[in-house]
Request: fold
Amino acid sequence: MNNTPPLIPPPYRIGVEVGGTFTDLVWADGTGTVRTGKTPSTPHSIQDAVLELIAGTGLPVSEVEQITHGSTIATNALIMRKGAQAGLLTTRGFRDTVILGRCERNGNVYNMQYRGTVPPIRRHMILEVPERIDSRGGVLEPIDIEAAWAQVEILLSRGVSGIAICLLNAYANPEHEIALARLIRERAPQVAVSASHEVSPEFREYERSVTTLVNAFVGPIVENYVGKLDGALRDSGYSGVLRIMQSNGGVMPADAAGRNAVRMMLSGPAAGVCAATWYAQRNGISDILTLDMGGTSTDVAIAPGLVPSIVAELVVDNLPLRTISIDMATIGAGGGSIAHVDRGGFLSVGPESAGSTPGPACYGKGGKRPAVADAQMVSGLLRPTDFFGGKMVLDLEAARTTIASLQEQGLAGSVEVLADSILRMANSNMAGAVRQISTTRGIDPRNFTIVAYGGGGPLHAAMVAEEIGVKQVLIPWSPGLTSAFGLLIADTRIDAVESRLHQLDETSLDAARLSELGTLAREIAATNGLAEGEYEVAFGLDIRYVAQAFELTIWVGDEVVDAASLRNRFEEAHRLRYGYVRPNLGCEVVAYRLRLTQAAKLSINTPFEHLPDAPREQIDVVLGGEQRRALMMPRAALALGESVDGPAILTEPTSTTVVPYGWQAECLPTGDLMLRDRK
Reply:
C-alpha cells in the first residue's frame, strides 16, 4: 500500500476485518472513493495487523470519522476453547443443565462412537445458588444473597475472570439475577459478569444457559483485545467511536463488545453478506446466494429479494447460541484447509486448517501438510509471482512435495490428479453447504445468482455453481476485501428480545402493546447513544402453534395489527418454511423482538482500473479432471462491457477468478464481473 496517498478530502471512514489468514482494510474519503489494504493476520497479537494497516494508509488518524471492525476472535476462542476461565452460577438443583444439554445427536444418529459437544466449562466451576422463581415470574424462594456470595468466593478462589449468572426462569422475573450481578460488580469489580437477563432473556433453560456461559467465556478475551485496539487508536489521535460488527449484520459501539461478545460470532462473514447485497443491488440482481471462501473456512448465506435470512439462534461448534444472526452455513473449506487420508483410506479436505502460521506449504513458512492453496498452485490456478499482488512469492515445489505425500499414504494418481481431486472435494463440500441453506429449505437455488468473494470464492464459485445448477456468478470489485467493504457500509443495528408467553389475540399488537414496545425501544436507543429521530424501529413477534416446539419470527411495522392478520402472516411463513399449515390449531406468542436501525448513509464509488496493454498468456491448467489450455490475464485488462470466454484465469491483488470451459466472464458497467454458464 502507498504510505503517502494523494491529497484527498476528509472525513475518512475505515472498515477493517481480521480473518484467520489475512487482515483486510477498506477506507473511503470525503468523496466516497474507496481504497484498500491487506496484510497477513497476527494471531498472537491480533490488533497489530489492524494498526499496521491503518498506519499504512498514511491518513491523519485525527481526521478519521469512523472505524468499523469485524473479527473472528470470539468464534475462534470458542471453537478452540481458548477463552477465559469462566464460572457459572445457577439455581439450586440445576447444576448440570449445560452438561446434559438436550441429548441430541446432531446428525450423528448412526455413529456408535458419538460424543456430544463439551461445553466450555468444567463441572467444578458450576455452583448453585439458593433461590427459585416460577415460570410466571413469581418468587417461590427469595435469594439468599450472602449464601450466593459464598459461592462467588469459591469461584474467585478458583481463578475465574468471567462469571455467568443464569437463574431458573430469570427471563420472566430477573430480580434475583439483578441483585446477584450487582453484588459481584460491587465486591469483585475485576470480574466480568454476564447475566442471562442481559445477554439472552429468553425461555429454554439450556439454550439460555449456554449463551450466557459462552458470553462469559469469550467476553474477557474480546474486551481485552478490543480495549487494546481502542486504546491504541486513541493514542494515535482517533476521537470517534470504534464500532464492532455483529452477527446480525449491524454494528455496536466497542464499549459494548465485552458484555455482548456472543453477538460477535461470525461478525466478519455477516459483513460480507451485507456487502454482497449492496453489490447485487447496484447490478440489478434480486435473489442471491453468497459464497465467501477465506483462508480457514467457507461461509454461505441466502438473500431472496436481497433480504438475508435471519435466525434467532446461531449454532457454533454444536452449541446453540440464542443471538440474532444472519443465517449462514459454515464449513472447513478454505485455502488453508488440510487434505488428508481418513481412516477408511479416502481423501478428505478440512476442517483442520493451516491458518496463517505456518500456512499452506506454498507460503514457504514451514507448512508440511497439503492444503487447498497448494492444490490450487499445482493445478495451475495460482501463479507463484502473482499471489497477493506480487507481495508474496509462492513455492510451487513445496506445494508439489506436500501433495505428493498423499501418494505415500496410499492414494493413487499423479500430483496433478491429486491436486485436482482436492479441489473437486472442496467444491463438493461447498456445494453441500449451499444446498443446506437452499434446497433443504424448499428453495430452488437455480434461480439465484451466486455472489462470490473472499480470497478463494471467485476461484471456486463457477465450479460450485455447476454442481448445483446455478447459471451465473457475480464477482464484486476487489473480492478479497468484500467483508471489510461490508464493514464500511454497515448500518448500526441493535436487537432486543423479551419473552412473554400468551395466546395470540387482539391484544398481541394493539395500541397499548405498541406503546409499551415503543417505550422500551427508546430506552434501548438512549443506552446505546442513538438520538430519537436518527433510527428506525421494527417490531417482531415469535409465534408458533400451540404445543409446537419452535417458533417463527414475524416482523411488522409500527402500526396496530389484528390477530387474524398476524395469524395469516405466520401461516404464510410456516408454509414457506415447512410446506404446510394447521388451520385448526391455535397460535401463541412466545416473545417480542425489537430492531433499531440507524442507516450508514454513505455514498460509495469503487474505482475502476483498465489496463488495455496488460499481458495475456496461454497456460496449462487442470480443471474438473481435464488438462486444458487457459488464457491468463489481469482482471484489469477487461474494459467495461468486454467479455472473455473460458477457460480463463483473471488475476488481481486480492483474489483470482477462474472461468471454466463453457463459461463467459463479462465486465459489467459497474466494474464488477458477471460469469455466465454458456453450455
Confidence is low (pLDDT under 50) at residues 1-6. The longest strand covers residues 492-503. The two ends are 40 Å apart (CA to CA).
